[in-house]
Design goal:
Elements (H helix, E strand, L loop, with lengths): L3 E2 L5 E2 L1 H31 L4 H23 L4 H6 L3 H28 L19 H34 L2
Antiparallel strand pairs: 1-2
Length: 167
């Protein structure tokens, strides 16, 4: 097998490189679809700036991937053209329809002054916040912060152990 250089300096074989490439592309697809869903959801409730940012995030993976691949003389257009036509059509249609739906919901908000879906008026932050929604919000924020700290410590310890156990 022909070894391939990786960003970490470790040499990967062709199988590892192929698996990493496939998982990275799957991750890119998930990020694009999640960004479109977030943009549409936020646009439906009357937001304008947040959906625009998520629509930009949907394009970001492609804007990074293509120039990097071309710099290494990989023709991404030829690879995409080699994909099954039905799969490429479904993917392109999903992205375009998702973007158009989010933009249509944003246009509705611009013209009416409110979103398609109304949100209940619940105060979840500030000195006047009380009740179940405020408690759940505080708990979610503090719990996520605590989990992030614990996860960071665990990852740091495992990484240190892995590095010291290598020959």
């Amino acid at each position: 097998m022909k070894p391939t250089d990786t960003p970490t300096g470790r040499v990967a074989d062709e199988r590892e490189s192929a698996v990493l490439g496939q998982t990275a592309l799957t991750t890119i697809v998930v990020v694009i679809y999640a960004s479109l869903v977030a943009a549409l959801g936020l646009a439906l409730v009357g937001q304008l700036l947040a959906p625009a940012i998520f629509l930009l995030f949907a394009g970001l993976p492609a804007w990074v991937l293509m120039p990097l691949a071309e710099r290494r003389y990989v023709d991404t257009g030829a690879i995409v053209a080699g994909a099954p036509a039905r799969r490429a059509l479904v993917a392109a249609t999903t992205v375009v329809v998702g973007m158009l739906l989010a933009l249509a919901a944003m246009a509705y908000t611009i013209h009416t002054g409110h979103g398609l879906v109304g949100l209940p008026d619940i105060t979840v932050a500030g000195p006047d916040a009380s009740g179940l929604a405020a408690s759940l919000t505080r708990g979610a924020v503090y719990g996520a912060a605590g989990a992030a700290i614990v996860l960071g410590i665990v990852v740091a310890v495992l990484t240190a152990r892995r590095r010291t156990s290598r020959p």
